């Protein structure tokens, strides 16, 4: 029996339209106090936008859907410009059609047809990109969005080698559900998990909340099938190899520029015996940072570890809404040395019972030694319940006239604190017109070498969509410049897409950029696949 | 103060000429019983070989050493054909000169000079390749061997981010010695550790005995500097990134075809509080294999785990030489259910004391449940003492007229047993003339997905070098065919070089081979760097 997702997807925002998570009164009061009261901008109606979708430029094809609503629903991702486009109804561009092939063979045929006809092709997974990956580029060529949604099944499970084969369009919940029925799991949990797909994770090199235990997608991706303009690339599974450069590492992060990933083989694990998420507090940032650094460098096999800075801790507790409980918590922690500058640490303990006991005792020892305070499982449970809810926060704030966005990077430990400061300052200081920006940060993916940094910022809508977008552009530019100035990657977990392409050369260098160009030119000499993504513009000069 | 290696290197074999590990009488008797008595072949004298070195074809350069002995000492690696060439004195080809630059700038200058002059360049680390990586190719162009031996220092240590920067020519012992003085270690211990270099490990994607704890070189290599014909490639350090394909993974395994790696940044760790190696026995292969598979899949954080098959177990105990002790061991194990078909398991426990206790208790539980027997620390200590001694075994056998070689791969768990059988059979059945081959195998690098397979085989010298080499060629071809027929990589830890290049397309596919071609052509359009290595012949047709 085929398993199907029951999600009723919003056309102009995040997630399932049955899910509503409005801002709680105390949360709203907190935001208003920080930023001033705000006015929401008016939302467009879908019927009005559908009426504006222009005629398709595609030649007829029996498998291509050119209906306006379908094209509308595949025109944008989840970046802030995408959000503003969807809310205002000003989409700018739509794909000329959407195809949803159900097999690698069908993808092959569509791709060959598109190449022959001079059609631009955008491979489409869950449409959750926050960096403009799936937006139709400005182009004279018609644009076909090639959705992998028809390939959402577990195709094979080798329990001895613990390798599962999935259709590339399988979204997170269906990955886990199909594995769970067999006693296995993948463990890739990005915030976008509800909608994002296994092929999209590979194409954008994504990372999930429990990467400490299960690895980034790089460690999970064992092989698979890619339909490229040059032919079919099959990557066989081998546990490790010294035989030359690793082709998987070229497909990982290829962002649709080298081919359409159709089948993904991943390393899976049996369901764990036990799992809990817990919360502790450190008295201040520097203490907290040193504590989590030492924990990760001591190789304690936690499944998750994150550290919120003081402002995020404060914001998180305010938005939670349980004023009375939170008040008690503040007093309790204050007595134990964790006052206004306290930083929240969230961690996950996963495994068999003896492993969990060992991990917990090690963790407790480190936290105690650093002067931190463990507060039991309640807050950890809260985190677990709402772990995929952050993307809905944009709705809750938008209804009251606020905009929220995030940006992220990863740097070595010796640059973590200065990078956080530089990144926060960049958005705090650049809203213009004396506007306040509420900024907070956490470290969410820790490595012995360094950490990812995830910064969230909230600001008020201007009095028009145009001005709101213009304000965001200034902030995004400042944030991105701050990231590269701090020696960070332009993205630790969201990829490059179109929005980050301008900054990529800072980490790849000119010679490295030329390598990427070469690879794209090799697989797709006509630049039909997702042009403008990953590498800015069309062909860069090859040295 | 600069630390220098005190190794007095053999010109015609492995390692330090002060080290002798002759075969013990019981070991010799065992080999003679298996293969029959043998006659050693006569060794050449160095002076005679030096006299045969032809005039250098290189233009004069103040930094290039063209003395015959220097060229002789850089002409061959450690493959079996290399051994036979060194022992017979029939080297075939020598580099025309050797340069030993002391900085990236000096490498750059030499490389530019060589490109300008049409000189073929072979980057040279420790000269320990067993796949023909550093052998001068047949060519009309003069050949310059570019040794990194002058760059053997720890250049920087960031203890907060745990990143060390080394000159690429730093050999294993000097890597560890320079780190140990600061309280750190790298933990990359291939069998070639005495001589192989950190740059060579990156170029050939190598793996060390304790990769379970410290990772393969892929997990250690954080960035660095590569002097390529197209310019200097700097790879900055970042703990992780989703920003497009990973350039490190293109340099890893590049085998000198894309540039000269001059500086290597690696992830290091503090010295562990405690470490021990221990031995256990499983009653038979299938039980042992299932046991070690379950241990690795249960994520027990051992630092090493290997399983010898019954023949390797037998051979290992015979060669150890302690007849009386071994007799007692056999009887003890026999009583406890581990008889003739018993398989030895060696494992490493490394970390702080509480971690070690936890790991050991988990390990014990698994072994007991599988009907295995732990035998305390003595055999583990023996393994530790001789962990880098295997390459010397070739000397011990050679003196009595026997030849030893190895081959290796990695396959998913569901193919491990059949691959071992196919690989062993390939060499057992193909020596010709009714000759016996003594073959044994172990699994040495375990992954949740599968395992590496390392097979050793011993056979008698023929009555001439030519015939001995011819016999080896037949065996090597049969072994390599068996590997690819089993779905294995042509090398898990030794790279491709020239000897494995013919088999590489089995795992990369035609399209993948074309990608490698593209990359080589991009960095080195004139094919001046190590031609014939990794990719057979000169330019492959680019599709």
Could you tell me the radius of gyration of chain A in angstroms?
A: 23 Å
Q: Termini separation of chain A (Å)? A: 53 Å
C-alpha geometry of chain A? globular
Biggest interface, and residues per chain? Answer: A-B, 92 and 92 residues
Structural class of chain A: alpha+beta
Beta-strand content estimate of chain A:
15-25%
Strand order of the largest sheet of chain A: 15-12-14-13-17-18-16
Number of strands of chain A: 18
| Largest sheet descriptor of chain A | 7 strands, antiparallel
User: What is the CATH architecture descriptor of the domain at 274-385 in chain A?
Assistant: 2-Layer Sandwich
* CATH level-3 fold name of the domain at 274-385 in chain A: Alpha-Beta Plaits
Return the CATH class of the domain at 274-385 in chain A.
Answer: Alpha Beta
Q: Show unreliable segments of chain A.
A: 538-543
Q: What average pLDDT do the residues of chain A reach?
A: 95
Features:
homodimer, 543 residues, alpha+beta, Alpha-Beta Plaits, seven-stranded antiparallel sheet, five-stranded antiparallel sheet, disordered C terminus, FAD-bd_PCMH-like_sf (chains A, B), Alkylglycerone-phosphate synthase (chains A, B)
Can you describe this structure?
The structure is a homodimer of 543-residue chains. Chain A is an alpha+beta fold and 543 residues long. The first copy, chain A, has a domain at 274-385: Alpha-Beta Plaits, CATH 3.30.70.3450. The first copy, chain A, is 36% helix and 19% strand. Chain A contains 19 helices and 18 strands. In chain A, the strands form 4 sheets. A 7-stranded antiparallel β-sheet of chain A has the order 15-12-14-13-17-18-16, sandwiched between helices. A 5-stranded antiparallel β-sheet of chain A has the order 5-6-10-8-9. In chain A, a hairpin with a 4-residue loop joins β5 (154-158) and β6 (163-167). The radius of gyration of chain A is 23 Å and the shape is globular. The relative contact order of chain A is 0.13. The model of chain A is unreliable at 538-543 (pLDDT under 50). Chains A, B: Residues 91-271 form the FAD-binding PCMH-type domain. Chains A, B: This is Alkylglycerone-phosphate synthase. Chains A, B: Substrate binds at residue 394. Chains A, B: FAD binds at residues 123-129, 255-261.
